[in-house]
């Protein structure tokens, strides 16, 4: 799996019964511009994947069950703590403290990318 696919993984993309991830979206940085056409900020957006072949289903190992459960628990805790500031508008599995898309470079995200990416390689037993 690619970094953007992990970031964009939604709760509805995880089939717990069959241990399948439905890869249907990706996250990528985009530039926002002002009226003069100058780049003013970079932001993370959830989009469709670049190619049709990127839309796919992937089996995941049973050892990931706890990862999904912990993410759901953490999102619930964050929602309680942040109150009305929490906005997980994409229903993402992994968010920051206020429900926004995780940004690249964060320690948690780097760990997720390593874990998921490593175990989703062809030839790694499930």
CATH second-level architecture: Orthogonal Bundle
Q: What is the β-strand count?
A: 5
Structural class based on helices, strands and sheet pairing: alpha+beta
> Which blocks of ≥5 consecutive residues have pLDDT under 50?
none
What is the averaged pLDDT score?
83
Q: Roughly what percent helix? A: 25-40%
Strand order of the largest sheet: 1-2-5
Main sheet record: 3 strands, antiparallel
Number of helices: 3
**Principal-axes shape call:** globular
Descriptive overview:
- With 126 residues, the protein is an alpha+beta fold.
- The protein has one domain: hpI Integrase, Chain A (Orthogonal Bundle), CATH 1.10.443.10.
- It is built from 3 helices and 5 strands, in the order αβββββαα.
- The protein has helices at residues 3-7, 65-82, 107-119; strands at 14-15, 20-23, 26-33, 39-47, 56-59.
- The protein has a 3-stranded antiparallel beta sheet, with no helix packed on it. Strands 3-4 form a two-stranded antiparallel sheet.
- A hairpin with a 4-residue loop joins strand 1 and strand 2 (20-23).
- It is globular.
């Amino acid at each position: 799996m690619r970094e953007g696919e992990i970031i964009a993984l939604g709760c509805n993309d995880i089939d717990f019964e069959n241990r399948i991830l439905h890869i249907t979206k990706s996250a990528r940085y985009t530039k926002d511009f002002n009226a003069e056409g100058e780049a003013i900020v970079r932001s993370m957006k959830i989009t469709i994947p670049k190619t049709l072949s990127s839309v796919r289903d992937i089996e995941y190992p049973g050892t990931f069950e706890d990862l999904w459960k912990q993410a759901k628990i953490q999102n619930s805790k964050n929602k309680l703590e942040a109150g009305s500031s929490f906005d997980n508008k994409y229903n993402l599995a992994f968010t920051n403290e206020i429900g926004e898309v995780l940004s690249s470079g964060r320690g948690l995200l780097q760990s997720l990318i390593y874990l998921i990416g490593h175990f989703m390689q062809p030839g790694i037993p499930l």
